[in-house]
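Feature request, filed as a ticket because there's no other form

It would be nice if the structure record came with a short human-readable summary line next to the tokens. Right now we just get the raw output. Example of a typical job, pasted below so the devs can see what we mean:
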Amino acid sequence: MTILGSVIILAALLAASAQSAQIDHLYVAPNGSDKWSGRLAAPNKAKTDGPLATLEGARGAIRRIKAECGGLKRPIVVQLRKGTYFLDRPFELTSDDGGTKDCPVTYEAYRTAKGVERVVISGGRAITGFAPTEANGLDVIAAAVPGFKEGWYPDQLFVNDRRADRTRLPKEGWYTIKSAPVGEQWSEGQDSFSFEEGEIKSSWRNLLDVDVVALTLWIESRMPIESVDDANHTVKLAKRSRFWLASDFDRNRGGRYYLENIFEALDTPGQWYLDRSDGRLYYYPLPGENWREATFIAPRLERLFQDTATTEKPVEYVNFRNLRFAHTQHILPPDRSGSAQAAVEVPGAIYAVFARNCEFDRCEVSHIGTYAVEFGPGCSRNTVRRCLICDMGAGGVKIGHGAERITVSDNEIADGGKIFPSAVGVWIGSSPHNRVTHNSIHDLNYTGVSVGWSWGYAKSAAVDNLVASNHIHHIGRGVLSDLGGIYTLGVSPGTILRNNLIYDSQSYSYGGWGIYTDEGSTGILIANNVVYRTKTGGFHQHYGKQNIVTNNIFAFAAEHQLQRSRNEPHTSFTFQRNIVYYDTGALLGGNWGDDNYDMDYNLYWDGSGRPITFAGASLEQWHKRGHDEHSIIADPLFVDPAHDDFRLKPDSPAFKLGFKQPDISNVGPRETVGVKSRP
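Raw output as currently delivered:
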């Protein structure tokens, strides 16, 4: 090694040492004690000092440091040693527990020369004491649920870090309701229905433990059974459904449903069942699974983290890094079977109010029955970045009413709706100035990103929101209807949806759209997006005004490529310099008769060779109505559209219209997501 190289290494080591000396370190470990100082990463030989044992212990130590020093003089880093920390209650912070811009407080996993240790913050409880038993003529195992007498009824089970399947009928898909006493309003639910013979039986063990999950329109309803009439094949439910029990908007057809937690359905390896009558949990091991050495965890808490801040006393500058959060559940109250949209009433496992300048970086939130992260009133300038959010009972991130300036960037949000199918990847309520960028959002049963929470043209707080460079795919999955890769609501001036890649948006019946501007969406710029392989259209506007749709590619929708639902006395949108490419279905669907829209400089192409018509009109007739006077019908010359390559060849006729190739080269996370386990 050269002298220069040695000097550089020495300088780096000295800089790292100096930086470390400028930080106060506290340590937490499973073998620690909250009576110790927390200044040592491991217990000393005399076992008289060492790390703290709990997050609360670290919080108390920080408060003491502040009291002794008159506030924070240096940043504080709390490092958690390897292990699973089972919480008895949510970890709670107040304004006394925050940091400052120069002296933030950080909770993170402990680092060694080999990498970051695995730390799990769990709202669950380990279930032990399994023993062999018999169920339905099969060899299974069972154990008593701790806390059963106190009213804990877990709705999820994780075996060796794997979500086990709750017993379900039918095994795949759903049943169809034979009939229900539906009224005239789709928003009014029912508490009974008739079913086909054999689908539900009064002879089932612990019948009241069985849950009915009904799927209607864009939501689910979860309702326990109250009673069953075998002779008439009717079931009485303990709650009313949230919407009617019909098939979407067709009141003459029954909706879909499935059943959960049926003892008689415990017949498939990997399944589990909870007997609420005696508090025993049954599990059917997988072939070759060593259940005696397995870890069984059931969620108990609804939240893992929360704060009690106020406007006058916010929580500020608290960071969480390289931590795993897991195991939450949300039990619906007796008077509610679900939410009217987006599972919005399901809380976040991590919940903040009046939190400012806080960050979740490289964390993992998984194996939960709720949303992952929720920002409530008073939250501002908080960030969720480079996190892995997956295996959710509900959805990813909620930015609620009264929050603002939240950044959700470079995350993977995937595999949600396990319990509440209508949950969203990222939901923005009445909240302005948020940034949702460079995320991978996929495998959800409803919508990828939802922006806004007002219906119609009333004033809305959801303004100036940016949704950009996200990779959104496999949305809907044929489970619910009326959904989109990106969905907007209400008056939203300054909101921009740009450079997103969206595909495979598939609804159950109607409404599997790519970009969906719903009721009253106004003042939105939709630009440079690539949207393909949707069910009912790459772009759909229910009703709205002053929206600009420009320089997008919409391709391969199954039913129609563009949809407009409501005629209005003002201009609905401007649709210019877009490419619409398809080989099945129609170009336009819905209502296009009033001509209150501005369309021009677009390129249209039907790869099947069929003549292109515009809501029944020829191009010449369309021109006479004042539309697409400079647009063309031509092959855009994509590189390989059959294999999802929508780059344009240099001689594409689209360029003559002023179209520019959308840049989707860097959609999704720009770095690896989740806990950074390596140095």
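Something like this underneath would help us a lot:
The longest helix spans residues 3-21.
Residues 447-662 form one domain.
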